[in-house]
Amino acid sequence: MNFSLLLAAMAMILSLIPQVTKMTPDSPKFMNDEPKGSSWRVFAVDSYEKGPIAVVEVEEVRQQNPPSLWAITAKNRSLAPVNSYRITAVVLTGDNKVKATQMLPAVKNLAPGKVTRQQIKIFPTILNPSDRVVFYVGELTTDDGPWKVDKNEVTALMAAMGARYPAQ
Question: 53-58 long-range contacts, Cβ below 8 Å, gap at least 24?
Answer without folding.
Answer: 53/77, 53/82, 53/85, 53/110, 53/137, 53/140, 55/31, 55/87, 55/135, 55/136, 55/137, 56/115, 57/117, 58/133, 58/135
